[in-house]
UniProtKB/TrEMBL annotation:
UniProt-listed PROSITE patterns: PROKAR_LIPOPROTEIN
Record region (Disordered): 176-216
Basic and acidic residues compositional bias, start-end: 176-186
Name of the molecule in the record: Lipoprotein
Top-level taxonomy: Bacteria, Bacillati, Actinomycetota, Actinomycetes, Bifidobacteriales
Length: 216
């Protein structure tokens, strides 16, 4: 998720764009803090190379056709997204924000906090986010990369998530897809939010984010 924050003295935080695709409530229930590097840094977050399944390749093709990005076109040539390619796209995003007068902080799952250096840039934020995220395609490509990393065979993740919930004793063995869709949509059952944090149980979050165990 991209979060834009006013100058630290103001402290108001509001969401602008989703960096990671929330595949279910379980995928959105965790909390994270901006503890990564800023746009002045150079640390690489992506360290794995992934091969794309056909459905993931089609998604990448759609992104390239929308953005007309030469970098994404290069990625598509071999059906593989390397760590270097993902990090080059990230640095392009960082440089774009820096040139527009923003610092960007990433946490471990690339959720990002964008901080304007000038307190008077509120009206420009959406335009900058559109330029540096939507138009360049980093957020969308990262969604494809993340999906390939956690689901390399493009399996049905709904069934895998339900099985993960059953295996961890969070629901009984009779738990159905209809019950899962109802609970994840209505925040009931295992998706009932914690009254203090507003998030879901850590294991429920893990089952939604990584039901096949490929991110461990």
């Amino acid at each position: 998720m991209i979060i834009v924050r006013e100058q630290c003295l103001r402290g108001r935080v509001f969401a602008i764009l989703a960096l990671l695709l929330c595949v279910s409530l379980a995928g959105c229930g965790g909390t994270s803090s901006a503890k990564g590097v800023s746009s002045r840094g150079s640390e690489a977050f992506t360290r794995d190379t992934v091969r794309l399944a056909s459905s993931q390749m089609r998604a990448l093709t759609d992104i390239q056709q929308r953005t007309h990005s030469a970098m994404i076109a290069d990625i598509m040539k071999d059906g593989v997204i390397t760590a270097q390619e993902m990090n080059d796209l990230q640095r392009q995003q960082m440089d774009c924000y820096a040139a527009a007068g923003y610092d960007i902080l990433y946490d471990d799952d690339l959720t990002a906090t964008v901080i304007p250096r000038n307190a008077n840039v509120d009206g420009e934020t959406e335009d900058v986010a559109r330029k540096c995220d939507t138009n360049q395609g980093f957020a969308d490509v990262y969604n494809v990369y993340f999906e390939a990393l956690r689901n390399p065979d493009a399996r049905d993740l709904t069934s895998a998530t339900i099985q993960c919930l059953i295996d961890n004793g969070l629901v009984d063995k009779t738990y159905t897809k209809d019950e899962y869709e109802r609970d994840s949509e209505n925040r009931t059952g295992p998706y009932t939010p914690d009254p203090e944090t507003g998030g879901v149980n850590d294991q429920v979050y893990t089952c939604g984010r990584d039901p096949l165990g490929n991110l461990r």
